[in-house]
Write a structure and sequence with these properties.
By secondary structure, the protein is α/β, with parallel strands linked by helices. It contains eight helices and six strands, in the order H-E-H-E-H-H-E-H-E-H-E-H-E-H. The strands form two sheets. Strands 3-2-1-6 form a four-stranded parallel β-sheet. It starts with a helix and ends in an 8-residue tail after the last helix.
Length: about 230
């Protein structure tokens, strides 16, 4: 069996784990050394409700990231941006704007290769290392979080992140906005977020006008309902 085939099988398996974890919100993770699928309990006190974490992948993008930042600011929501290193290197001003607005930045590899888990171990480590350097050199901020492209996890990927002192982060709510579904569908999925969920959205990799519009609607409703958001 070739490495790409094994990687695709592994990615499908992680999709099943992701679904199982999303049903177990508030419990211990199934995999002790796997990625985070929910906001860690206890960050706001043992009896406080866990907030929701909005995460944004694949940017920064000069067209969509500023629009999304405006929407987040309008609703008083802070998010975690998992940036692609080669895009970050082209738009360092957006990295600085993200941090200045109170958001945080995570590592989403340098070139977003897929299937990520099929890469040689040395290349996996270098993809992570290069983005760490780009963000640190341009902002002085060193990411502490890592997300594999398309959730392409494996022991090697998780180990490479740990070697660089990064916490791996997955998600539990996915509107699949990268496919550009109707705005109403993205809204419905984001509105399904409950305490402790990690929501996945995108500001890069294509036309993200529907994501921006959907989050403007969904975040407004969630905030009116008392949902609290946090960066990871």
């Amino acid at each position: 069996m070739s490495d790409p085939v094994r990687a695709h099988i592994a990615q499908a398996a992680w999709s099943l784990v992701r679904r199982a974890e999303s049903w177990r919100t508030g419990r211990r993770p199934l995999l002790a050394h796997g990625p985070l699928f929910g906001v860690p309990a206890g960050a706001r006190g043992p009896d406080a409700p866990r907030p929701v974490a909005l995460t944004v992948d694949d940017g920064p993008d000069p067209r969509w990231t500023p629009r999304l930042l405006d929407v987040l600011d309008a609703h008083g929501v802070r998010a975690t941006f998992f940036v692609v290193g080669e895009r970050a290197a082209r738009h360092p001003d957006l990295l600085r704007r993200i941090l200045a607005a109170g958001h945080t930045i995570g590592n989403h590899t340098h070139s977003h290769p897929q299937p990520f888990a099929a890469l040689p171990p040395a290349l996996i480590r270098e993809e992570i290392r290069r983005t760490q350097r780009v963000v640190a050199d341009e902002t002085g901020f060193t990411p502490a979080l890592f997300r594999a492209p398309a959730g392409g996890w494996s022991r090697t990927v998780l180990g490479a992140a740990r070697e660089q002192e990064l916490t791996s982060v997955d998600w539990s709510v996915d509107p699949k906005d990268w496919r550009s579904p109707p705005v109403a569908r993205i809204v419905r999925t984001v509105l399904s977020a409950r305490r402790g969920d990690i929501v996945l959205c995108h500001d890069g990799g294509g036309d993200r006008s529907r994501t921006v519009a959907a989050l403007d609607t969904a975040l407004g409703r969630l905030r009116r309902d008392g949902t609290v958001f946090t960066v990871l």
